[in-house]
Structure formats: structure tokens, C-alpha cells
Amino acid sequence: MKTLIVIPARGGSKRIPRKNVRVMCGKPLICYSIENANALKAYMDVDVAVSTDDEELSGIVEKRGVEVVIRPAELATDKVTLDPVIYHAMQTMEEKKGCRYDTVITMQATSPTLKWETVKAAIDFFENSEWDTVISAMNKPHLSWGVVDGKITKNYEKRLNSQELPPNYLETGGFLITRRDCVTKEGRIGEKVNIFEIPEEEAIDIDTYSDWVLCENILRRKKIIFRTVGKMQLGMGHVYRCLTLAYKLTGHEILFVADSGSDLGISRIREANFPIRSVKDEVEFEQLLKEEQPDILINDILDTTEEYMTMVIKYCKRVINFEDVGSGAKYADAVINALYEKGDKLHNEYYGSKYFCIRDEFLEEHPREFSETVENILVIFGGADPSDLTGRLYDICKVLHDKHPSVKFHFLLGFAYPHKDRIVTDEEHQIYVHSDVKRVSSYMNKMDLAITSQGRTVYELASMGVPSIVLAQNEREAEHVFAGIQNGFINLGIGSKQDALTIISTIRWLITTPKVRQEMQKLQLSKDFSKGQDRVIRLILNDPDDED
Fold it and tell me: Among 59, 188, 429, 500, which one has the highest count of C-beta atoms within 10 angstroms of its own C-beta?
């Protein structure tokens, strides 16, 4: 079938002056429609023409190898509809090419988010049917009202949720596909009409400045893959950090990828309603990268190898690594090691607490005022607690109760903690257990003292000004030097190697020395975590507007 695509584009525009030639995300607006139309030439016999009355537009169009149909002045006024414009362009092109088209497609110049693949699918739908006309539309069911005989009247029979309402198709400016015989000066729509539904983000027709801003945001949208891990032996910190960042990257296309053994992490990500895929090995992950071709890959999997990094950079425009001190780190565009205060001083490394991505809830809560008396102690060892430090402290707190009967011990058990059956509330010993708490900050800002591991939780406790005792889960965690006395923490080293008597005596000492706890709180609150998220987001998106 011989097809003509007509892109109507006047030079004048009242709401957004000269909008068709204005640059949007690096190129004139009209170029998006031209590129879509030209992409179809590889699949069908198609001519492309732009109908315009504007010299500047003509120059832009001709530079891209597209025919220009000069629109007569009488067809370039605000009151003229598109029907005679398309008819004029069709007749002009038929005369010039010495042919008669079978199909005529109108594609507006003001639909920059429309994808050529969507247009091709619509053309295939049209050519394999008996329809005279197929129109792009968006399904937008909504409770609406109209006016009948001067009275406001509802356009529905029963109030329902939007997903239960019947279809309500709104035409978009994307495309109108019609048989050539249906094109006249008075119209382009035949008797047999159907709708081709397109996604909402492809349905925007730029008419106002708000539309323009929305389109720019969509066109700047990145496809971002988070490669992360969440399992018992490694804990859930990597997953939680990735989720924190994913929430901040609203508007971008997000996909999580985890190895098939990360069942705990996969479960948590699914609970957060993000799409996730599992891979069994690097070969399978490479195939995924080939398919997805992400703009950005974020590795939160600890140390990377040179082999792994040389593979991923073949498919990803930008690669960001977290907590990576492996041989592959040098290949990343940025390595963010917030839990370490110094590294190898490579050009791509960003170290220290200023890059810690604290969750939004901690930016909203306020630290409590210092209390001379310890009334509430928090015990929190992360999402999984692979060393079961929770179990050790559960027994220790029963011993402490004998000497400090008025102190309440609050255990916050993580999502993946495996021993919830035996760590239970024991009111006799003032022990209260809370499982999988959704808003940890609301507990922390009521505490006078905390016992925790040496991961991301120490930053959260510091932001709430809770003097804390730290027991590391493993050797690697013990390398995170933030949790030291210089920042308001008593660090007892690796928890599994520390004896119960030392832990008990340290807790008792802090209970009875308010001046020490007060100084610890001052050191904690001297840290500012409010800009860490923004710093990291700028590094991920390669935003040059960085104060550092």
C-alpha cells in the first residue's frame, strides 16, 4: 500500500509562540514527528510531507530530507481546520509524485512523546482490518458532568471508581490514519471508525506551557536498572538503599534486578510495587542488559570485578556503584562509598557520610530533647541480623532488668529476621517487641539509648540524636568508621566476638552517666544528612549542578 504521512505545522502559534521550531530537549519540536515518520520508511512504502507557511520551518524540514508543501495563506489562518490542509497536501504530493495514495496519515508536530513503534502498530492494525479510519486516543474514564437545557447534569449512571467506569476515549494529536477516498476538503473520517489506544505518556498534545514542561520531563526520563542483593548472610541494607533512591527517582523508568538467591530482597521490592526480575548468573544478566539497554545501571552488590564491569559498560550509558572496593570499581562513572570515610582517591570515588542517603522519614522527624534519665532503650540490628545479635541482646536485657527495673527495652525486628518465634514481648522484664515497623523514625525519636549494628542504622540514629552502642555484624561492617566516638557512638567491635559482660557493663555505664550521653548526642546532631540524597541523585543522573 502506498502511504502519505502529512505533518501540518504552521509558523504562528498564539499560546506558545513559534512552538514548532522551539528547541525541546536539544532539537526543534517538529523533529520528533519527522523522526517518527522517517523511521516508518524501513517498513512500508511511505512518503512524508510537512505542510507549512513558514520559511524557518521549511528550512528545518528540508535539512532532514522531508518534502515541504507550501501552504496557501488562506489555509494558514487560525479559523481553518486541518481537513482542507491535509486535502491540499495530499493533492500536491500526488501531483508531484505522479501517484495515488492508498492511505493518508495525519501526524501532528506537537506529539513529541509519541513513539514510532506505536504508530507502526496502529498502521498494522489499520491495514489488517476493514476500518476506514483509525484515530489515536487515550482511555481516560472519569466521573464527568455536562449541561442539558441549561442545567448541570451528570454524565454517568452510577458513581464508581475510575477503573470500573466504561471506556472514555479522548482523541490525541498523535495520528489519524484513513483511506485515501475519505480525504476531502470537508473531512478525513470515514463511516467505519475505530480507536487505537495509546499510553498516557505518549498522548500529550502540546497546547500550553504546562504541556511543554510535562513533555520535557518525559523526554528526559531515564531507564534505570538497580542491581541489588538481599539475603540472610548479607542483610537488607543494599535493598533498602536502592528503594530509598528509587522513590526519589519518580518519573524515571525503574527496574530492579536481583540474583535468584535474593528471595528476601525480591519479596521486599515486590511489596514496594517496583518491577523486579531475577537472574541466575552473569550470562543471564548480560542478556537482560542487551534487551533493556538501560541509560543508567546502579550496582549495589558490594565489590565488582573487572570482568563484570567491562561487560556491563558495553550496554549501559552510565554505571554507578555503591560500596565497591573491588577491582572493577575503576570502570564505574561514580563509586559512592558513604559508609567509608576514605578510599583509594580514584577520580570517580565519593566517600563519607555526606553521601549517605537517609530515608525521607528521618528528614521529617525531629530529635527529642535530651533526657537525664534513661527510660527507653532501643535494640535494632537491621532487616535480617545474620549474626543474630538480637538474640544475644534479648538475654542480656533480662539480666539488665534486675539492676534497672524501670528501663523499657524496645526490640525492633527486621523484615527478614528469622527468629521471631522466640524473640517475644516479655512485660515481666520490661521487654517489648515490634516486628517489621514501617516508620522506624517514630520509635527512634522516643529513645534515650540504642544498641545497633554498624550499617546504615547508625546514620539514622545519629540524625535522631540517640546515643548508641555499636556491635558490627562482620569484618566488612567493622570497617565502616563513622560509628565511632568522634560521631557519638561507643563501638564494641564485632558483636559475635564480644563477651556479654562487656556489653552489659557498657550499657550500665551509659545509663548512669548522663553527661557522656549528652556529649554523644551533641556529636551526632552536628552531622547534617539532609543533602545526601540530592548529592547522590545528581551523581546518578550526571547533573552538573553539584555544590561539591
Answer: 188
